[in-house]
Amino acid sequence: MLAVAGRDADVIVVGAGGTGSAAAWQLAAGGARVVVLEAGRPGCGASGTLAFRVADGELAGNRAALRSLPLWREAEQETGVPVLTLTGAVAHGRSAELDVLAWTADAVGKPGRWVPPEEAVERWPGLRCEDRIFFHPLAGRLDASAALRALRGAAAQSGCIIRYGEPVTEVRPRQSDLVEVRTGQGCYRARRVVVAAGVRSAALVPGLPPLRPMWTRSVRFAPVRPDLEWPVFQHYLDPPALAAHGYASGVRGAGTEVDFAEPAAAEVDCRADAPRTRALARYVEEWLPGADPASVTLSAPRCEFVSDAVLDRRGPVVVACGLAGRGLPVLPVVGRVLAALVTTGEPHPAAP
């Protein structure tokens, strides 16, 4: 290892977003001397509410969520920041995707159950469900801003140094165990570098596939009664129903926040997605009897990277990008994967 002095470290992480913070936490917890360089200021980053699900139709995603759950609880305990509220998840509709959800939940050893419509009406009066209803208990609402604070806090408590307002301008491998990282404040040296700088990663690591940031908008509403139970939910609408209602896709909800299942627009301000917003407001009125239609408001845009996630090691440089937005709920286990890539060159066995 390099001598820990001045600007030297075992690992430098470029970017203190969720991915970089998760990697820094796991590396520092394993005993590495870690420095994180973040271009932004403290407090900047993710916002909004995301759905956390262990039954989401893909085996790899289910396993990653299942392994992330105890790590989120560990981060909450270490930092005192509440991140995840388990509510269970309701999926309903006329799609075969419901059977896929049930099968993949069984396959990871955490089965859910089919709920009779009359039970759904009694238990979740704020939702109007179609006749086929699948419920899974290991799901809930994840506060994106709190999640980022918890990951950064856990990294700092594990001994990681986070330096804000220091954008990285160059990552230059020198030897198999030496990388120079340049910023406006000087030059750092480390055995390994983790580049987790979002769309800026392509400027620091040549040859990365393009990352296309898309922006999704959700609508929020106030419940008609404060005592209503709001699970996270997903409504699978078949093509005739989509055409009849004018919806862009199926609909998902996390508490009192609802959006379509696909990203909305490439523009940050999303002014072009007014029809989508109107459709979401119409969905709330038609399918959520527990919501006050007059209270529906448009949320701030949330970034979703539309590309395949990159988790790769190139010599002494590890790259992690494309995991913003919906990848946030499984970032603790992604941090373990990245820590293993840094230390052994092979993904952690928990890799999704």
UniProtKB/TrEMBL annotation:
Gene3D superfamilies in UniProt: D-Amino Acid Oxidase, subunit A, domain 2, FAD/NAD(P)-binding domain
User: What InterPro entries does the entry give?
Assistant: FAD-dep_OxRdtase, FAD/NAD-bd_sf, MTOX
Quote the Pfam families the UniProt record gives: DAO
- Source taxon at top rank: Bacteria
Limits of the FAD dependent oxidoreductase domain:
10-341
Cofactors, names only: FAD
Question: Keywords in UniProt for this one?
Answer: FAD, Flavoprotein, Oxidoreductase
The protein depicted here goes by the name: FAD dependent oxidoreductase domain-containing protein
